[in-house]
Specification:
The complex is a heterotrimer of chains A (226), B (738) and C (174).
Chain A: E1 2-13, E2 16-27, E3 31-35, H1 42-49, E4 57-62, E5 65-66, H2 72-81, E6 83-86, H3 98-108, H4 113-126, H5 142-155, E7 160-164, H6 172-189, E8 192-196, H7 200-203, E9 208-213, E10 216-219
Parallel strand pairs in A: 3-8, 3-9, 6-7, 7-8
Antiparallel strand pairs in A: 1-2, 1-4, 4-5, 9-10
Helix pairs in contact in A: 3-4, 3-5, 4-5, 5-6
Chain B: H1 2-10, H2 14-49, E1 69-78, E2 81-89, E3 109-112, H3 114-122, E4 136-140, E5 152-158, H4 160-164, E6 170-172, H5 193-219, H6 223-236, H7 240-275, H8 292-316, H9 339-350, H10 359-395, H11 399-410, H12 412-443, E7 454-458, E8 481-488, E9 509-512, H13 513-517, E10 531-534, E11 563-570, H14 574-587, H15 597-650, H16 655-693, H17 702-729
Parallel strand pairs in B: 2-5, 3-4
Antiparallel strand pairs in B: 1-2, 1-6, 3-5, 7-11, 8-9, 8-11, 9-10
Helix pairs in contact in B: 1-7, 2-5, 2-7, 2-8, 5-10, 5-12, 5-15, 7-8, 9-10, 9-16, 10-11, 10-12, 10-16, 11-12, 11-16, 12-15, 12-16, 12-17, 15-17, 16-17
Chain C: H1 2-13, E1 16-17, H2 18-30, H3 37-49, E2 53-55, E3 68-71, H4 73-84, H5 94-106, H6 111-135, H7 138-173
Antiparallel strand pairs in C: 1-3, 2-3
Classes of the chains: A alpha/beta (226), B alpha+beta (738), C mainly alpha (174).
Chain lengths: 226, 738, 174
């Protein structure tokens, strides 16, 4: 069952075309890796799928409904309720503690502070972050920060987790650890994962991979999951 | 959401705390000034109204009322100060009591203001106390009847029989409570309040603008961090509305802190301000009273405006969830930006020759023009910076100038922002100096100084002017009196020869040559003449050095004619003048006591001094605010430059070149816009003077150039002082990938 | 198994004499280690025996060198199959991959598609190794990582080659 889909998406930044008719279908519950050289448009494709950018033409569908036609507020609330994000860096709010950062999506949804923080704290044990609840993001190591971001991405039980180079700034072992937790937690909750990476070893955690070249999506394996 | 916003605001770390403090201080300054201006606007008119009671006779229908008083207003003078005096006579139990008095003074009594009472006690009777002709001082005139704490006011009691015989008295059955709007016969009053209110409004605006710029600059501190924070929130799914609520909370917190501080500042400064005679006379601190409307309006309005401004500002800048990862070169400013500036100047120019009748009309005519010019300078600034940068880029052959010019041309808005406060300050300075300087030059025509020694008693109402010898007994023998001349009004049957003397036209009053001969320092009669045609004050035009034309009138007939004036020449000492004045006014009680030329000048000089003081305060304050603005934005700009500049340094660009870049980047917009601001300011001053006062712009004095150069030099110094920091900031640690 | 197939591919390109074949192989595929004449001729005989090449008209002259070899349909289809099928994803496959890519370019085949297929096979193997890593113990993880790193190195080469295809094609065809 296709949960999120891109159809003939075209997007240019000024004069520079980033996507030239990209097509992609992601099945529910699968882990999909989007690979490609830098500048190929893979991050742009992810941003379009997640409702962060609106394509110049083409369609983005989530659970069958058009995302690209929604207004900024509707797309924001989609990101809040249905999606989670783990990016390479710069995603935690510097002024908040780790547990408040994790609780942020719930707070934005109107959940009361006490309840949100309590829910957030359950993730700290799961991801091996015990004792770091009150640290600021500046006081966390790279791996700890990514795990906090992972907790934040999953705390609202999203349907899809979007992640872009999650281990890019980490060393091999730490990155492996993060990927383990990411895949494990996502599988547990049945969350679909869309993973953008240029590293094959990271893509190897996924069930399936596609390559973005020159703004188009190429499937390498001949299988098509219906 | 609001509590969340509060949490974020108060937890931001050092950079954010500095930002909050600077904004709060700037808001405090602004609120303080706003409160002074608002209460001052009110205070000016309530001060003015305290002249009202003395001019009750001029109000149409004043004589209606039970038991109307016999009433005469007399404007007296003592030692270059004005004394407001009312002679009155009670006619019945229901005669109205002027404000400030416990009761009406009886025939042998008078009331004096505290300052006047002190003077009377300290001065020889012949100079002052005798004017009250042996009356008993019954008490003090209360503050409610005094325009200024140090006003000289007296209310003197007479019998109805005495007063009714005097020429020029009126009946007053109702005491007025507001300032006189028209004075057909002359009154005792201050400056028309609406003119002052115009000045105060312009002053408030002139100071509020640079403050807004300071606040705007401070708001941009720590911008990158805030952008990152907002981007993270947006990524996680915060709607733009939620983000702007957080920003609004931030703005409101500093605004509330600043407003509270501003009120404190206002109360601290109020008494000092009230004592400064901006209107020519100091105000009571109570005049700058904070009424509930103003209090609530400012206390609630300022934070509200701050919150709205933050919401509005964020709406224009769509915070993308992707933050600052992709920086697109903004579009260059276009030439249309010059339009508001030219429109403002054109608006002022339009009113040359079309001066509105009422002061309110004038306010409507000139305020918008000045505001539009100020806005126009801010709007045109980036374009001017870009134009200047392109010029420099064309001629740049050193790397520093090339880099600086390119950076400027790339993002002229940011570069101009740091100096925009200074530009406004220079504009305000040149307008203020241009206007005040030209007025000052007009007031003191070079050459003849005022004559301090000659006391002039003028009988304004011909019908009741005395015949015979109006000179009071004993005047000629008073110590210090050097000569007395009486001028006479020629009767109908004596034709006035039309012999123009210099620029005044022809004299039409008669005087005895014998009297004139005994007056030193006065133009002489023609030899052999016995009467002459003169002017009432015996003074001729500057450029005239001749003799009075002879009159074909028998000097023996002169005493039969009504007197026009008595000119009493003294040795100029206070004793002589005041004693003579006392004697003369006792003999001839009239609206205007005998006065010397210099006293009129003193009154308007006091007002002018007040305006000058105000202008100086405005200039200094706006320059100071601009300096703070510049410092804040340079500090902010330094941290923005950290990364790109450390990269440049790593690749081998020398520190000297980098310093050159910073210097050029800051200096080019400063000088370009400064030149335009000064030009616009002087032009605006010229248009204002031409239209409002029919004067033309006098080239400013050297002190103006000194101030301008000092201001620019100080800014250059601030810029230069940050250059040594460049070494530390762009050290290798700044280039780390963190 | 590479040498016979490589020679076969070269013959498919155009019928060649044995000596020319050796020279071509040494130029493109030898990399400092030239083929011996003996190896060349014995490989060619075996290919002829298996029906993948035939000897065309003999030139007048001495020795096996004077024979010209032409590819048969069987031979051509074997080359095709070899090119098309991915190699079992094992590390240290550069030599084989290199040969395949270069030949594909020489023969004007769709090298990019071959590379993509190879890529998919690599990734599949990497997936298997990753699963082993996640579910196995530390020693298994060690071995799996070793394989993963090398496979990654191959993939990097594949990516780079794909990016460079146009330039390489130019050079190889002249």
């Amino acid at each position: 069952m296709t949960i999120i889909e891109a159809r003939n998406v075209v997007l240019s930044f000024g004069e520079t075309p980033a996507l030239r008719g990209a097509d992609l279908a992601v099945a529910e519950g699968e882990l999909l890796a989007i690979m490609g050289p830098s500048g190929s448009g893979k991050s742009t494709l992810l941003h379009c799928l997640a409702g962060i950018l609106v394509p110049d033409s083409g369609e983005i569908l989530f659970e069958g409904r058009r995302v690209d036609q929604l207004g900024e507020t509707a797309r924001s609330s989609l990101r809040r309720d249905k999606f989670g994000f783990v990016f390479q860096f710069g995603q935690l709010v510097p002024e908040l503690s780790a547990q408040e950062n994790v609780a942020l999506p719930l707070l934005l949804n109107g959940v009361r502070r006490a309840a949100a923080v309590a829910e957030a704290r359950t993730w700290f044990g799961r991801l091996g972050l015990d004792g770091l609840e009150h640290r600021r993001s500046g006081e966390l190591s790279g791996g700890q920060a990514q795990r906090v971001a992972l907790a934040r991405g999953l705390v609202a039980r999203p349907r899809v987790l979007f992640t872009d180079e999650p281990t890019g700034a980490l060393d091999s072992l730490t990155g492996e650890h993060v990927m383990d937790l990411l895949v494990g937690s996502a599988r547990e909750q049945g969350t679909t994962v869309v993973l953008v990476t240029h590293e094959a070893r990271v893509a190897a955690y996924a069930d399936r991979e596609v390559v973005v070249r020159d703004g188009k999506v190429h499937s390498l394996t001949a299988e098509v999951i219906a | 959401m609001i509590r969340f916003g509060l949490r974020l605001t108060l937890a931001g770390g050092r950079e954010a705390a500095v930002r909050l403090v600077v904004i709060a201080l700037a808001v405090a300054l602004g609120v303080g000034m706003l409160l002074i201006a608002l209460t001052g606007l009110h205070g000016v008119s309530s001060q003015n109204d305290r002249y009202g009671w003395a001019n009750s006779a001029d109000v149409p229908g004043a004589e209606r009322g039970a038991d109307p008083l016999w009433w005469q207003l007399r404007v007296d003078g003592f030692d270059r100060r004005t004394v407001g005096r009312v002679d009155l006579a009670v006619t019945g139990p229901r005669s109205p009591v002027p404000p400030g008095l416990p009761r009406l003074p009886g025939p042998g009594e008078y009331y004096a203001s505290p300052e006047l009472a002190k003077l009377i006690a300290a001065t020889p009777a012949a100079e002052l106390a005798d004017r009250f002709a042996g009356r008993r001082l019954a008490g003090t005139v209360g503050p409610v009847a005094l325009p200024a704490p140090d006003s000289l006011v007296a209310v003197v009691g007479y019998t109805p029989a005495e007063l009714s015989r005097r020429p020029g008295v009126s009946r007053v059955g109702t005491i007025a409570t507001t300032a006189p709007t028209r004075c057909p016969n002359g009154c005792w009053s201050g400056i028309p309040s609406s003119g002052l209110q115009l000045i105060l409004s312009v002053v408030a605006a002139a100071l509020i603008f640079p403050l807004f710029i300071l606040i705007g600059t401070a708001t941009r501190l720590a911008a990158t961090r805030r952008e990152q924070r907002f981007a993270a929130m947006r990524l996680v799914g915060a709607t733009p509305a939620q983000v702007s609520v957080v920003a609004a909370v931030e703005a409101t917190v500093s605004a509330v802190a600043g407003t509270a501080l501003g009120f404190v500042l206002f109360f601290l400064v109020r008494d000092t301000f009230a004592a400064i005679p901006f209107t020519g006379a100091p105000m009571f601190p109570a005049d700058l009273a904070l009424d509930p409307v103003t209090f609530l309006g400012v206390a609630l309005g300022v934070p509200l405006v701050a919150a709205l401004a933050a919401r509005f500002a964020l709406r224009r800048v769509q915070i993308s969830p992707l933050g600052v990862t992709r920086r697109v070169t903004p579009r260059p400013p276009r030439a249309w930006r010059l339009i508001p500036l030219t429109a403002g100047l054109a608006e002022l120019a339009y009113f040359v020759g079309r001066r509105p009748e009422t002061t309110d009309g004038q306010i409507m005519a000139f305020l918008p023009g000045i505001f539009v010019i100020m806005i126009g300078l801010i709007v045109a600034g980036p374009w001017l910076t870009m134009a200047g940068a392109r010029l420099v880029a064309r001629r740049a052959n050193r790397p520093a100038s090339l880099i600086a010019a390119r950076r400027l041309a790339d993002n002229p808005r940011a570069s101009f922002r740091s100096v925009s406060g200074l530009v406004l300050a220079l504009f305000i300075t040149s307008v203020a100096v241009g206007v005040m300087g030209s007025i000052a030059a007009d007031r003191h025509p070079p050459g003849r100084g005022p004559n301090v020694a000659s006391l002039f008693t003028l009988f304004r109402d011909e019908r009741v002017a005395p015949v015979g010898d109006p000179v009071p007994a004993g005047l000629s023998t008073q110590p210090g009196v050097r000569g007395i001349t009486v001028t006479r009004i020629p009767p109908q049957d004596v034709p006035v020869p039309e012999i123009p003397l210099g620029s005044y036209g022809w004299p039409d009053i008669l005087a005895s040559c014998a009297d004139l001969a005994r007056m030193p320092e006065v133009p002489r009669c023609a030899p052999g003449a016995r009467t002459a045609w003169v002017w009432p004050d015996l003074a001729g035009p500057d450029d005239w050095t001749g003799t009075w034309p002879a009159a074909d009138v028998d000097p023996a007939l002169l005493p039969t004619m009504r007197a026009q004036s008595i000119v009493t020449l003294t040795d100029g000492s206070t004793t002589a003048l005041e004693t003579a004045r006392t004697t003369l006014q006792l003999a001839h009680p009239m609206l205007y006591s005998p006065y010397t030329e210099v006293e009129f000048g003193v009154e308007s000089a006091k007002v002018f001094e007040g305006w000058k003081r105000l202008a100086n305060v405005v200039i200094l304050a706006s320059l100071a605010i601009a300096g703070c603005s510049l410092a804040v934005s340079i500090a902010g700009g330094l941290s923005e430059r950290k990364r790109p500049f450390s990269m440049l340094r790593l690749t081998g660009v020398s520190l000297g070149t980098l310093r050159g870049v910073v210097a050029l980047e800051s200096v080019t917009p400063l000088l370009t816009a400064a030149v335009v601001a000064l030009g616009a300011g002087l032009l605006a001053a010229h248009l204002f003077l031409t239209a409002q006062m029919e004067l033309s712009l006098t080239p400013p004095a050297a002190s103006f150039y000194v101030i301008v150069i000092a201001g620019i030099a100080a800014s250059l110094a601030v810029i230069a002082s940050t250059l040594p920091l460049l070494r530390r900031i762009t050290g290798p640690e700044a280039a780390r990938n963190d | 198994m590479t040498v016979p197939l490589t020679l076969l591919g070269l013959i498919e390109r155009e019928p060649r004499h044995g000596y020319d074949l050796k020279r071509d192989y040494d130029t493109y595929f030898g990399r400092g280690k030239p083929l011996s004449f003996g190896q060349v001729y014995s490989t060619l005989s075996r290919l002829a025996r298996d029906g993948k090449v035939v000897i065309s008209d003999l030139e007048p002259g001495e020795g096996p060198d004077r024979k010209r070899y032409v590819i048969t349909d069987a031979g051509a289809s074997e080359v095709e199959t070899w090119l098309r099928e991915p190699v079992a994803a094992e590390p240290h496959l550069q030599t084989v991959l290199f040969a395949k890519v270069t030949l594909a370019l020489m023969l004007g085949r769709d090298a990019e598609a071959y590379l993509d297929t190879q890529r998919a096979a690599h990734l599949q193997r990497m997936r298997e190794l990753t699963e082993i890593k996640r579910s196995g113990g530390p020693v298994d993880a060690l071995l799996a990582d070793h394989g993963l790193f090398h496979l990654e190195a191959d993939l990097r080469w594949i990516d780079l080659t794909v990016a460079r295809l146009d330039a390489i094609a130019q050079e190889v065809r002249t």
